[in-house]
Amino acid sequence: MTAVTERPAVRRVTVRRGVPRLRRLGLQVAVLVAALALWEVVTRQVEQPYFPPPSVFLPQLQTLWFSGPPAHAFLTEEALHSLVPSLAKLATGWAIAAAAGVVLGLALGRFRPLRQYVDPVLQLGRAVPPPTLIPLFLVVFHLGTTLEVVTIAFGVVWPVLLNTMDGAASVDPLQLDTARVFGLGRFSRMFHLILPASAPKIFAGLRVSVSIALILMVIAELMGGGEGIGEDLVNAQRTFQLPAMWGYIVILGVLGYLLNTLFLVVERRSLRWYRGSRQNEPL
Question: What's the pLDDT tens digit per position in 145-159?
């Protein structure tokens, strides 16, 4: 009898949790529709050829990008030709910078003397805008994918490195002393204590780096002449295909939103233990 009476209660809790999510999703869709409607009204009132309304470029975007076969997620050959190279360069540059930033950040965060010596160099490197180094990268790597990946990696590494370094440096000394008492070696402390304790700040840096990687991907393709969405965007601008140009801009915005949403899902699953511990903390 006990099991029978508990099941409806579980179902009611599930429904109550689902209602706010549906309501939030409905509000988000409503805001998006309202923004598109305002965009449509304003651009039609202004009547400037450089600012076409959504009703002009969205149908063209659907024809160019989303009229393909279902087997390709309705993406056309032109869309795949632009999207795949761009995503490959973004993922490669981001992965290289993430790996280097986490490794160096953990090392510098735990060795205070070394961190103090290299901190001016890190601050100087962070302050240099990556697009200003593209002429130097062009001399070293020439035009091509390598130039674009290096540009992305250089700009992405700083938030990951500095956040990881800050997280590793702020680990509770009492926990480290306890680990030493229990005989944990340096590598065991690094992987079982320091890395988990630094994970929230590491993920914060990685999340910021995703948006930076997308921006640098477009800039590198604009200046490096590689295949991808950036090249299509600049070609549409040069040939005065303004609806196509705005379509590519919208694609980049949607791509950034999807990447951020995907990263948030990964972050919530990976840091579920951290969120649970914060909720159980006494007030």
Answer: 888 899 999 999 999
